[in-house]
Amino acid sequence: LPIWVKAILDDFLQFAGRMRLDPQPRDLRDIVQEMVDFFQPQADRAGVLVRVDMPGVPVTARVDEKLLKQALLNLSINAVQAMNPEGTAGPGDRRGELMFRLELDSTGDEARLSVIDDGPGIPEARRATLFRPYASTKPGGTGLGLATTRRILEAHGGSVKLFNGPQGGACFTLCLPLSGPALQAEA
């Protein structure tokens, strides 16, 4: 099979298969930093500046680290592609900024992990189908990245929210409960 067909089939099988969580107590700051370190070379090639805004204290949640990193990677790839559709930048050519922000909600019951870009934002007409499988607007896109991201968050008992910035850009916020039935499976 051609590699692109294999990639589409792999994406479909991952999306259609049963999601099995292995939740472990983790400091979400570590997961974000590991993801940023992994993604940094791709952002550099695209001319995208990556910034991180996290609290100075641990934000511990029971999460499946691998799946949460997959959700963050899906959002990061989409953000960079939205800011730099050509894919690469010349030396010193800045094409956008990507921010990872981790914070607690006002009650302390939920962590909010936002992936914020300064690209064009998400058109209102596109928002209704954004998280549906196979609803991609990118050439060669499978439309499974955001659908998979939503599935991962829902499996954790959380959700994903989308906001557009007033001057453009998109903000995807992953809301993760710090306690609850989905996270007490191993307790």
Topology, please?
Elements: H1 3-16, E1 24-27, H2 28-46, E2 48-53, E3 60-63, H3 65-83, E4 96-104, E5 110-117, H4 124-127, H5 145-155, E6 159-164, E7 170-177
Parallel strand pairs: 2-4
Antiparallel strand pairs: 1-3, 4-5, 5-7, 6-7
Helix pairs in contact: 2-3, 3-5
What keywords describe this structure?
7 strands; alpha+beta; two-stranded antiparallel sheet; 36% helix; 187 residues; 5 helices; single chain; five-stranded mixed sheet; disordered C terminus
What low-confidence regions span 5 or more consecutive residues with pLDDT below 50? 181-187
What's the number of helices?
5
| Global Rg | 16 Å
Strand content: 15-25%
Average pLDDT: 79
The secondary-structure element order is HEHEEHEEHHEE
| End-to-end distance | 44 Å
- Given the C-alpha coordinates, what overall shape results? globular
Largest sheet: 5 strands, mixed
Report helical residue fraction.
25-40%
Spatial order of strands in the largest sheet: 2-4-5-7-6
**SSE class:** alpha+beta
Number of strands: 7
